[in-house]
Amino acid sequence: MQAINALPLLSLLLLSTCLLCSAFTSKDYSDALGKSILFFEGQRSGKLPPNQRLTWRGDSGLSDGSSSQVNLTGGYYDAGDNVKFGLPVAFTTTLLAWSVVEFGSSMPGQIENAKAAVRWSADYLLKAATETPGTLYVQVGDPNMDHKCWERPEDMDTPRNVYKVSAENPGSDVAAETAAALAAASIVFKDSDHSYSARLLQTAIKVFDFADKYRGSYSDSLGSVVCPFYCSYSGYQDELLWGASWIHRASQNGSYLAYIQSNGHAMGADDDVYSFSWDDKRAGTKILLSKGFLEKNSEDFHRYKAHSDNYICSLIPGTSNFQAEYTPGGLLYKGSQSNLQYVTTTSFLLLAYAKYLKSNRGGASAAVSCGGSAVSADRLVSLARKQVDYILGDNPAKMSYMVGFGPRFPLHIHHRGSSVPSVRAHPDRIPCNVGFQYLYSGSPNPNVLVGAIVGGPDIWDGYADDRNNYQQSEPATYINAPLVGALAFFSSH
Description:
Distance between the termini: 37 Å
Family: Belongs to the glycosyl hydrolase 9 (cellulase E) family.
EC number: 3.2.1.4
Protein name: Endoglucanase
Pfam family, one: Glyco_hydro_9
Strand order of the largest sheet: 1-2-3
CATH architecture: Alpha/alpha barrel
Keywords: Carbohydrate metabolism, Cellulose degradation, Glycosidase, Hydrolase, Polysaccharide degradation, Signal
Number of helices: 18
Radius of gyration: 21 Å
């Protein structure tokens, strides 16, 4: 449903009242940062390590891949179900890695936990990319069967079918996103584990070559097992440009710059798109590539600065290009299903771009050009802070949308492992259909999925703390990943 554009004046006032004030301290942001990373331990699949901190979780998916004689254990369940979807989890990995690359110096107390979160996913993506030559495994679990059950991952007995893309059944979107994830992760480990970093980058290059050579959308190849769950609505061109951009940043190989210059126009580089998500990478790619122009004065990336400005201006009330929707409480609003995924990605891009602007040594390019006005980097930081603070509880409902943070937060999240008694409290198996009693129960979830960000409120700032309302109450890895970087920034500013 198209959001009602009846609130611009109120939103403008709410968003421009103060550039620096906040309801939260750096200590609060640090607390939220630690919890946002801890959430990923609750999403782990596979054999859990001895230092697992969310101890209500147990081992799961230990035979994943065995039906195809490959090892696909590990990785993350992307949201509240028990399927390992390749496209959103690869995007999660890229954004987690980008958070560490950009703001790792601002999270000294959490850097090892953040890197562990990246590695848990990167290890799985390496398996998916290298188990069988010429093949990329992109999903474990039949989502249609999985969604007919409500069971914790430790008990799941639904089919763990394995799905892949290949030369005959291409998936350039999921393959190029996987390449981006591996390349971004290689930067994270470049100094601390050089051999691992090199392996990640080498694999990223091979996966990208595969994505580029055998072009096609994985939605066409895999049909009903990825649609409507994670259909690639934007196509695969945006992922190819995104993947090439990350490999260029990781390798500084000039051939990827040439690829970007030759293919950028055809791959959406000149399209002004105003959202950034697991499906559409265009806005994020432009911000990423703007770094080259802003920090190195490289004319190769000048066009991306102009398009990045257009994206940023669309978010700023009062500018000539303003077109975003905000709730009465000041929250960016893009859609009724899992709206906070757009809020966290946007907040991250605002802060990354602000950082790139400030790194520039003066000049007109040190600000965002919005028609005849210039918008400072501090204004971007202010808008990002407003969004982050809203998520943490500075909103009309006075509710934190991060589980376990603050005095009031969602208690009935749409998440199987959190809502069903844990294997620690109830060792006996809870069968598929028996679990539905917990979905429909009015009781709070017995297991607190600390740090999870839910889908969030509606256009009027309303939130139903209802397990059955998955649009608002389901957490997802790709909501949390960019918030890790944003919280790191605010914890040290």
